[in-house]
Model the fold of this input.
Amino acid sequence: MTNYSLVESDGPDEPPDGRTAALAAVEARLEHTNELLRRMLAEVAKTPSTHAIFVDAGYVYASAGLLVAGTEDRRNFDLDAEGLIDAFIDTARTIFADSRLLRVYWYDGARRRIHTSEQQAIAELPDVKVRLGNLNANNQQKGVDSLIRTDLESLARHRAISDAALVGGDEDLVSAVEAAQGYGARVHLWGIEAADHGNQADPLLWEVDSQRVFDLDFCRPYVTRKPVTLYENENAPLPSREDVAFVGARIAATWFAERGRDRLAELLPGHPYLPGPVDGELLTEAERLLKRSLRGHPPLRRALRDGFWQHLRMVCQN
Done:
């Protein structure tokens, strides 16, 4: 029969000294990690949320101009962009009461992406960043929607904003909204009251987190229609077709110098017709130079276009 000896013990087995030290080290590291997390959460709790305002200037000019001045043509009204931007900021401050403004992004088009004097003045405003797309021969913006998407997606991805107020209406902005929402940002669509029919695409309205529309009373202080030009010599004899054609060629020379061959290449396929915006610019500038209205005189307007085209086609041959 085997004899067993009993060993008296004061308690449960103690782990070796090396294991005790290892456990102590792990506990110390866990406590350090927990302390870092507590500090980080405390900082996050103290950090306010952030919002930014993204403005499609082409949409604002067209919608506010039509609503207040009855025209989408920028040449026929003045827009107090600084005052309107301040109003947008005040609105955001009310809606996002516990949030701070990152900045206002102002998206517009310009020939060769060169700032106009008006765009430069806007760019100099505090907390405003001007982003420029291009303008084609028809004065249509190109590349603006992609700029909005890039900024929206980048800011949302880097958690730089929690809310985005988007002033626009183009369906092409849907992808920008989806991209920002994919990173957790909320997108709020702001619009200008439509003068007759809707000016915001339904798919865009369906995609955003909230909607707000600025009415006539809100927009009226920032839009001023320009006075109709009155010419002193309206009773004078009409200019000859040759004189009008010469003025058309003179305007074409300026047009080409400002826009270059790329814009001319876009214009040529439409010969002998001119896109509406270009034709409007041509008529307005011709009347300014002639100090005489050409409205109601179709033969003279044809002579004006003929002179314009003749110069441009001569440029193509050189």
User: Anything to note?
Assistant: The first helix runs from residue 17 to 46.
